[in-house]
Amino acid sequence: MPLLETVIHYSLVLGVVLAIPMVVALGLQVLILGTQSHQTSTRQHVASLTRPDTREHPVYYVGFFHPYANAGGGGERVLWTMVKAIQDKYPFVVCVIYAGDSTSLADLVRGVQTKFGLRINKDTLHVVELTRRLWVEHKYERMTLLLQSVGSVVLAAEALHAFVPDVFVDTVGFAFTYPLVNMLSSRIPVVSYTHYPTISSDMQTLVSSREAGVSNDPVVANSQMLTELKSVYYRGLAMAYAFAGSFASTVMTNSSWTHNHIVKLFGIPRMTRVVYPPCDTQVLAEFPLDERKSIIVSLAQFRPEKNHELQIDAFAKFLEANPEFVMPASAANVKPADILASRVEPKYPLLVMLGGARNIEDEARAEALRQKAIKLGIGRQVHVIVNAPWSDVQSWLRIGRVGIHTMRDEHFGINIVEMMAAGLLTVAHDSAGPRMDIITPAIRCAADGKPSLPSEADARAYLKSSDSVEFPVGMVATTAAEFAQMIAFGLRVTGPVERALQQAARNVATTKFSEAAFCTAFYSRFGPVIRWLDMQRSDD
Q1: What is the strand order of the sheet 60-65 is part of?
Q2: Among 270-279, 459-468, 516-525, which stretch is predicted with the lowest mean pLDDT?
């Protein structure tokens, strides 16, 4: 009898222990998703505002988790090209954008067309405005990755409470939201497009080697104890990130570098594929290759990791080594608007830095770049232009001669491809996406610090038979001195070598990284998700 009582006692205890997480999960589900009537009400509301074509297929709702949907960077181009691709092939799908921007649907669609040249159908588009985006803003002085990851879960909870989709698509890289979606409903597939892993082995190496950088504060780098603590923190974060990522149904990565890290972390190689992001190469590839002006064009959001400061340092070194290119005090200032309107022909090289600003912090970074250029005495030859319309960006790409991109470990670099397609002689940081996927083969500096330049004979051979002859498609560098060398080469090179570089770059940009290539690869990953939904619906 005592044995039976003991068994009953422990069985009850075990039952209670197992019931607690189930009750908690159920409570969270009700708290986040709301009641069934709430979910039905929100879906009916969205249905009343949209008009999908359901003559041959029932409607599906695909939710895109992208808090900065109204920004103008490469990530937003991926988002909106996905939306456009879905609208073109699946007219019965309504795309629901979870965005933190307080803007009307009409203004959002108009902005997408202005920035990216994409015409989005408002009839199958709905926007859910998120009010808690501050949770994922760069506001944290310490433990930023962890706190932003927790914040992304809070923000996703708000999104799912507002509307429960049939498919959850994360186009930012907030993998910590995936277990939440799975916990709330295992019937919602999670589609991930990862631009950059939240935590990577490269970041862990940077910390352990005590090298200061964007992700490693100098205070930490200069302390052995803090370095050890941060290394433990990074290892724990990597384990949590790997666990969260394993809940994805299918994963797309934007480059080989990102793919290698994500496969190692998420551990689902069969479900992970490289899908190069869409690049607006069709129009850019029609720009003439000649009649270029002495303008170095930078195209990147004004975020700290883009390392715009290195561009100004490199340009300053270039001017210091080549004083004939320094604008004298007697020369009149040149306004960007006058250059675009062809009212003024710049007589001295200019660095034109184009980029989007997401918030006041980005605006402040742009202003700091202007002040840095002034401090270095090159302010009149540096123009920092924030949130320029896509038409102006295209104009700069049409007339520019050299393209520059200085982010270390850039996951991919859509803007690099766009510069190459437009005919700019492009130099990027010798790491990650540019090194592995885009600028290959590349011109590099040799041991003496000078660029290893292709010969005129090789250039002529390439121009004669581009299909059978390999030729560099651009340049790569790591230090300000190396970037300065590449700027000098790009501004001075002429003849067959210049034309071969331009054509080789354009060929790669228009074939490997085109919008059409992206859509084909995206359909191959998204199509099975639609078929899975169809199977689930037929089983019901």
Answers
A1: 125-129, 93-99, 60-65, 167-170, 190-194, 250-253, 272-274
A2: 459-468
pLDDT digits (tens, 9 = 90+) for 148-172: 888 899 999 999 999 999 999 999 9
- 3-state SS of 318-356? HHHHCHHHCCCCCCCCCCHHHHHCCCCCCCCCEEEEEEC
pLDDT-based confidence at residue 26 (cuts at 50, 70, 90):
very low
Dig out the tokens for 533 from the structure: 């939904």
Q: What is the DSSP letter of 423?
A: T
Q: Contact at 8 Å (CB) between 373 and 383?
A: no
| Structure-derived torsion over alpha carbons of residues 280, 283, 289, 291, reported in degrees to the nearest 10 | -110
d(CA 529, CA 11): 41
241-262 confidence digits (pLDDT tens): 999 999 999 999 999 999 999 9
- Matching residue, tokens 């939440």: 180
Buried b (16+ CB within 10 A) or exposed e, 423-440: bbbbbbbbbbbbbbbbbe
H-helix or E-strand spanning residue 99: strand 93-99
What three-state secondary structure class fits 278?
coil
Residue closest to 406 by CA, chosen among 441, 438, 434, 375: 434
Residues ≥6 apart with Cβ < 8 Å to 414: 74, 77, 277, 278, 279, 513
- Residue 152 CA to residue 175 CA, distance in Å, equals 9
List, edge to edge, every strand of the sheet that includes 295-299. Answer: 382-386, 350-355, 295-299, 402-405, 425-429, 474-477, 442-443
Integer angstrom CA distances of residue 516 from 116, 520, 528: 15, 6, 19
Contact 282, 454 (CB under 8 A): no
Closest CA to 248 of 161, 198, 173, 196: 173
Size of the chain, expressed as the number of residues it contains: 540
pTM of the predicted protein model: 0.77
pLDDT above 60: residue 264: yes
Say how far apart CA 168 and CA 97 lie, in whole Å: 10
